[in-house]
């Protein structure tokens, strides 16, 4: 192809990219500019292709130089924006994640029901009957829990031997493992998520009901209330993400199930990523706060503040912004 014809056909997109590069960096974007910004990666790839053709066909150095400059400017803008990880993380935490939670409130409510109802029912059963917990877990595990929470000093001594940092790593692995089960179970048409939510609710309720009797209650409840708001909320959100996947597999609509899953996966993953951050925070509280020798009143007050923080964050953060 002659250079003049090549320039006539491709020049409009070069001019468009030049205009975008002049207008977009460092400015507050209008709705039109935001829409154009979404088109920039595809436009940039086309210009890169034009640049390659210009070199291959040995067009004039003036044309090659112009395209070379465009490619460099486009690369700088696109990959500089991608490199702003801290800003993206802050926006995700402050806007994207809580907005996604509110948009998925039906799945969150269903997940909460399958987690909370078994916990309450079995917790009541374990509280009324001291032997009920043995139907949920082996006697050896029950004895270990009773020994641990028989007095607060045992908790503090156990924490001290392994170190707070080591326990922090253990809690992260344990908590995220539970969250991942509740999420990945959604691939079994949502039934896996419902199972893991109910199972963990049953175990949690049974243990809590059994340890609500003296002498365990005085150590158990002050220990668990601090990190519970973040941990339990995160498990419910991971279960909600799994249910989102499951519903698309059950009701894919006009799409193939694989395509329906691809369509919903980014939204579900946002819930899981936010839930994982909450689980990390819960692990930090459990490792560095829960075993501190503080009064029960202080720990209950701290728990109340955390519940207010969780509910306020998920219900109010990011309002007025696009997720």
Whole-Å distance between the termini?
46 Å
Shape: elongated
The SSE string, one letter per element, is HHHHHHHHHHHHH
Q: Helical segment tally?
A: 13
How many domains? 2
Number of strands: 0
Q: Please outline the major beta sheet.
A: none
Our estimate of the beta-strand percent is: under 5%
Task: List the SSEs and their pairings.
Layout: H1 3-23, H2 31-56, H3 61-82, H4 85-103, H5 105-128, H6 139-148, H7 152-162, H8 164-184, H9 191-210, H10 217-224, H11 228-250, H12 257-288, H13 296-316
Helix pairs in contact: 1-2, 1-3, 2-3, 4-12, 4-13, 5-9, 5-11, 8-9, 8-11, 8-12, 9-11, 10-13, 11-12, 11-13
Detailed description of the structure:
- The protein is mainly α and 323 residues long.
- The protein is built from 13 helices and no strands.
- It has two domains: 3-83, no CATH class; 92-316, no CATH class.
- The protein has helices at residues 3-23, 31-56, 61-82, 85-103, 105-128, 139-148, 152-162, 164-184, 191-210, 217-224, 228-250, 257-288, 296-316.
- Helix 2 packs across helix 3 (61-82).
- The longest helix is centred in the last third of the chain and has 32 residues, at 257-288.
């Amino acid at each position: 192809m002659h250079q003049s014809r090549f320039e006539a056909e491709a020049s409009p997109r070069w001019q468009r990219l030049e205009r975008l590069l002049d207008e977009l960096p460092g400015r507050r974007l209008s709705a039109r500019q935001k829409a154009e910004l979404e088109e920039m990666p595809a436009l940039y790839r086309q210009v890169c292709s034009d640049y390659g053709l210009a070199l291959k066909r040995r067009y004039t150095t003036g044309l090659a130089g112009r395209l070379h400059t465009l490619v460099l400017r486009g690369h700088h803008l696109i990959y500089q924006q991608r490199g702003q990880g801290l800003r993206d993380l802050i926006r995700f935490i402050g806007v994207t994640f809580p907005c996604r939670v509110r948009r998925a409130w039906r799945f969150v409510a269903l997940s909460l029901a399958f987690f909370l109802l078994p916990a309450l029912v079995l917790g009541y059963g374990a509280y009324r009957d001291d032997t009920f917990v043995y139907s949920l877990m082996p006697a050896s595990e029950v004895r270990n829990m009773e020994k641990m929470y028989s007095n607060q000093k045992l908790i503090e001594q156990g924490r001290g031997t392994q170190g707070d940092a080591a326990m922090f790593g253990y809690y992260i692995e344990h908590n995220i493992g539970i969250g991942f089960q509740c999420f990945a179970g959604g691939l079994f048409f949502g039934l896996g998520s419902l199972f893991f939510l109910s199972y963990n609710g049953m175990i949690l309720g049974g243990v809590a009901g059994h340890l609500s009797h003296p002498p365990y209650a005085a150590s158990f409840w002050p220990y668990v209330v601090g990190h519970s708001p973040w941990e339990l909320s995160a498990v419910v959100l991971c279960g909600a993400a799994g249910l989102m996947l499951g519903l698309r597999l059950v009701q894919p609509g006009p799409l193939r199930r694989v395509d329906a899953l691809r369509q919903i996966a980014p939204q579900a993953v946002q819930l899981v990523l936010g839930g994982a951050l909450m689980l990390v925070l819960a692990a930090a509280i459990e490792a560095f706060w829960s075993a501190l020798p503080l009064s029960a009143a202080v720990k209950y007050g701290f728990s109340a503040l955390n519940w207010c923080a969780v509910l306020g964050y998920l219900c109010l953060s990011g309002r007025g912004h696009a997720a």
